[in-house]
Design goal:
The chain is α/β, with parallel strands linked by helices. It has helices at 28-33, 52-65, 84-97, 116-127, 159-176, 185-200, 215-228, 246-254, 271-274, 290-302, 328-334, 339-345, 362-377, 385-396, 406-419, 427-453, 457-460, 463-477, 482-489, 491-494, 502-511, 517-522, and strands spanning 2-7, 42-47, 70-75, 106-110, 134-139, 147-151, 205-208, 236-240, 279-283, 304-305, 314-315, 319-324, 348-351, 382-383, 424-425. The chain has a six-stranded mixed β-sheet with strand order 3-2-1-4-5-6, with helices on both faces. A five-stranded parallel β-sheet has the order 8-9-12-7-13. A two-stranded antiparallel sheet has the order 10-11. Helix 3 (84-97) crosses helix 4 (116-127), helix 13 (362-377) crosses helix 15 and helix 14 (385-396) packs parallel to helix 16 (427-453).
Length: 524
């Protein structure tokens, strides 16, 4: 069925009065029923009680031009048809009383009649799907029937708009990636999801991943994107929870009253209050104490909290992003992190992979770091061709674990750019950086095997076995799971087997050294 919802027009529908001459003028409610190309099976006519006689005349005229249409009068009293709150409330109640949810029907909302306030309210109720379907607008021409336009609010149907939205979305994605043309498919898909969440949701976001993966930078970019879209008015407030301890933690986060503790010589608003109408980024949230976790949970849910030493709650409407490199689920099992807080902050949980897991993005990030150095120093630095090729070979080598992730890349570029001559990084400069890195990593490997096997491991295992074990440890530490590490280690042989269990093979190999994947992964 075709079903239309319309408001009686106390001015336009009265044109021509009740005399026969009314059929020579355009009256929107009647004209809607006169359209040859569009027939309505049901016609909901909303009217105010004081216009009951006009309503009866319009219903009679609708049935005259369209006798098969069932006209359903809906009385909606309004004391002031220009009062937005009252009009919206009354029309909302009408939408709830009537069942317009049958998907077998086609619904139309007529937005030509009624006050401008009523038309706006119909539009809003249509957009929120309380009054579903398409908008229909009628207009006069040289006939009593006039004409009409149908407006479908599914903007994806409009090619020009869709193209503009696609450009805007690409700009948003580039903004979140700081303009870096990343190539890693999984990372790009992750950023697309984060962009949709940032634009559409006010709920907390949890960014997980190794240290240096870019959580802090992404949090700030999310804030800036929200602010550009008019979603936030306040500031970006960031704190590393690992630096917060005792009364200081309570004071920094929630503020304090003068005299709350020794040294509290004046009132302090606290970071949650400073982030009012803005965004609070709590990095390393896993380091936050249990008491602070309890107060934070209350503040997230109620938007209210008690400053230290105060008996009166303060209010703050902030959005929240949390960052951590810890396994918070495991911390909940040990009791160091509250499970109810984790449930509240991980509605949107995004894992940022380390640099070693997205090596195809090293080169565009290398260019970004060079540009960043130029902005900070005022000096434009480039690689010569030989030096760039050598650095990329070093950067892509699997032995290079990039344990510090983008911080390591930033540090390497900063060192080479600072030591370069004439604004060009040459092969000698790159080779020195590579050697520096190899010396550091060799020491780390030695220390790691000591922590895994003990100080006398060289006496207990052949060098042949240790060289192989070092590589296996590297792969394990750059993989998210034992299954993923097994696929990397047994990629060739697994293709020759109809059935394979790479995870089990890796587990048995590590067991020969008295190790398991979790121990190797965490390096303890």
């Amino acid at each position: 069925m075709n079903i239309v919802i319309s408001i009686l027009g106390s001015t336009l529908d009265r044109k021509g009065g009740f005399a026969s001459g009314r059929w020579g003028v355009w009256r929107p409610s009647v004209a809607l029923a006169m359209q040859k190309e569009l027939h309505f099976d049901q016609y909901y006519l909303i009217y105010a009680p004081e216009f009951a006689s006009l309503k009866d005349q319009i219903i009679q005229d609708i049935l005259t031009v369209s006798p098969e249409t069932e006209v359903i009068p809906a009385e909606v009293p309004m004391s002031d048809p220009w009062d937005f709150e009252e009009v919206y409330s009354k029309l909302y109640d009408f939408s709830c009383r009537c069942d317009f949810s049958d998907e077998r029907n086609d619904y139309f909302v007529h937005i030509t009649t009624g006050t401008h306030v009523a038309q706006i309210c119909l539009f809003l109720l249509n957009e929120s799907h309380h009054l579903p379907g398409k908008l229909i607008q009628t207009y006069p021409n040289n006939t009593a029937g006039g004409g009409y336009n149908i407006i479908d609010l599914d903007l994806s149907r409009y090619d020009m708009l869709a193209q503009r939205f696609a450009v805007e979305r690409k700009n948003d994605l580039d903004f979140l990636k700081s303009g870096i043309a990343t190539k890693n498919k999984a990372f790009n898909e992750l950023i697309e999801t984060i962009e949709r969440v940032a634009i559409r949701s006010k709920d907390p976001i949890l960014l997980t991943g190794p240290t240096g993966a870019g959580k802090s930078q992404l949090a700030r970019k999310i804030y800036e994107l929200k602010k550009l879209n008019g979603q936030l008015k306040g500031e970006f407030v960031s704190v590393n929870c690992a630096t917060l301890r005792g009364d200081q933690a309570m004071s920094i986060l929630f503020g304090h009253k003068k005299g709350a503790y020794t040294g509290a010589v004046s009132d302090r608003p606290g970071l949650l209050k400073s982030a009012d109408e803005g965004l609070l980024f709590l990095d390393e949230i896993g380091e936050l104490g249990r008491d602070e976790q309890a107060m934070l949970l209350h503040a997230i849910e109620e938007k209210r909290f008690f400053p230290l030493g105060s008996d009166k709650e303060t209010e703050s409407h902030f959005e929240l992003i949390c960052g951590t490199n810890r396994n918070l689920e495991k911390d909940c099992e040990t009791g160091s992190f509250r499970s109810d807080l984790l449930a509240r902050i991980n509605l949107w949980d995004f894992f940022l992979p380390g640099l070693a897991e997205r090596r195809e993005d090293i080169e565009p990030n290398l260019d970004y770091e060079l540009e960043s150095f130029a902005r900070k120093s005022g000096k434009h630095i480039t690689f010569n061709r030989e030096a760039r090729a050598a650095f990329m070979k070093y950067a892509l080598d699997p032995w290079n674990l990039w344990k510090g992730n983008f911080r390591d890349l930033n540090a390497a570029v900063t060192r080479m750019a600072t030591l370069s001559s004439g604004g060009r990084i040459d092969i000698e400069c790159v080779n020195k950086e590579i050697q520096r890195s190899r010396n550091r990593v060799s020491g780390e490997k030695f220390d790691l095997l000591v922590s895994l096997l003990g100080t006398n491991y060289r006496e207990r295992y052949d060098l042949f076995d240790l060289v192989q074990l070092e590589k296996v440890v590297e792969i394990c530490r750059t993989s998210r799971s034992r299954a993923e590490a097994g696929k990397k280690l047994f990629a060739a042989s697994r293709e020759k087997k109809s059935r394979c269990n790479d995870s089990d093979r890796l587990g048995k190999y590590l067991a020969k050294f008295g190790l398991d994947f979790n121990t190797v992964k965490e390096g303890i």
